[in-house]
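re: that chain from earlier
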Amino acid sequence: MRLPALLQPWSAWLAPFPDDLAVTLGTLLLRLAPLLGPLRRHAAPQAHEPAGIGDIVRRGPYERLLLSEWALADAVPEEFMRRAAGGELLFTGPEPANSDESLRSVALFDAGPAQLGEARLVHLAMFILLARRAALAGAEFRWGVLQAPGTLHATGGEQAIRQLLEARTWSAPDADGLQQWNAALGKDLLDCWLVGAADAPLPAPVRSRVLVQRAWLADELEVTLSQQRRTRTLALPLPKPEHSVRLLRRPFETPAKPAAAAIRVASGTHSLKRPPLFSSQRGWLAVNMVDGSVTVYNVPNSPQDKMGRPRNTGALPNVDNIVAAGLFHKAVGRVTLRNGMLAIAGFPGPFFRHAKHAAVALPEPKQFQAVSGALRWMPVFHTVFRESHTELLSERVIVLDKGSRLVAWTRQGHAGAGDSPPADTAFRPIANKVLHAVQNGSALLFAVGLAERTDLYRLDSGSNVPRHLHALMHRGNSFFFGNLKGWRGGDGLYLMRLEGSAWLLGERNAATQIRIDANATVLGVTRRTPGAAPGAVVLDASKMRIAMHTGDQAITLVDATERIAQASFDPVSERLAWLGHSSCALTVLDIDPPEVRLRAVPNDRSAHG
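^ sequence. v structure.
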């Protein structure tokens, strides 16, 4: 790694980091280093007996006056008095009695809740600065975590940094813990540091402190260093959010280069009227074309996977009259309003596959609101269920209409019926005031907004009665499900709009309120990595950036080179897809790890993308 000249003094400590993180961390070191004074040996107290003569000096008590000076006093008293007045007499300089003792420097780091997040960037930088400071003085360096009383580590380098960053806790040391620290550090320790919050408990041997807190009105940290009765304060600008996250979570990992797979659409141009449509099964994505057709892409799961050729459906029949549509594997299922009836076709089951099957009656407006020609098609879901111990199949198409009603059409028949006409179609309302619905395998998750709370439900493919999952004691206006697999095991995520720019972000048993610009477009909710804090996936008002908002920070996921015309987020595959406004190019991005999986550029727009 080739570091800038200013960072060369810390090259040994920055070597394990990837180049971009080494420069980011080095910037913090350059800003914090001037606050620290050097580590020096302290002279022995005057009450101690000196260990010997270390030098000849011009100041000192007269009992240490050189014998030659006393001889001068006897022989030439006037000259002796002149030299005394001018400070020219010579004295023996004692060697301190503790000069042969090893010099020690100890740093304690506060790993409590007040120091979670960006504050730990200062911990990381101070660890390197204090370790190098001790090495320059030839001192022994030890470090510990304030919440682990009595334990001091001698480790350094990559291993120590990993230990330091992984030491996170919600506890604080009590009186017994402070006593353990006092006993472990001893009374004669002359260089002891505490890096942490202002209200952190203070062991008696601590002589220097570094206080770290998040600034209220700016993206920076306030760092206050107290050493040798001097206090200095620094406003430390935060690095880019993505660099901060990597430094704290994966400091020594080099991110994989985006594995962008660029292909050319054989003919036609992506339409910018509707967002990309993810399939209910991972790996497939549909985009509307300007000629009324739909192109279905197979998105590779890794750079090693081969990418299939795009499939174009041809012009969809009665495309202007489609009221609801969805992608199921490679099939575009749709509900079309035609001559006062609803045609349900294109679904991968045996009974809603072909348009030749009889259309169904349009329900009354108070039961179902059909709007054709809308810019956004209503979401539609599809399941097939086999009755146990029989050959009877039950196929269901579910639509969330513009009036927030969740309704279903069901057809039943024998598995071997093939393309024979199905039995009559049964229409059934499922729920009203539905804020959001998403398909999770063969089940449907949906949220119902009531006057004072929001109820979450699960509808399984073999049941007509939704099962109540959870009640959120807030009234929501918009809702998103995240981490769909977690809704089976208790780790599901949700994002709910309360009012204005106030949103509730959380899990089943914990939530935090965040604010999102009212002019931004919320796409969904996810975690950047397993176990990390959840975040809202947001396309900002400029249409140039997609970021994950976790409450205290916004982690950039996409920094676009052109305005984003349409964007979608899939909670099943945890992928982003967007269309460029000028190039009409389609890009698909995996969230974890962040890698481009697909980029499709239309032939007649290739010059733009």
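The mean pLDDT is 85.
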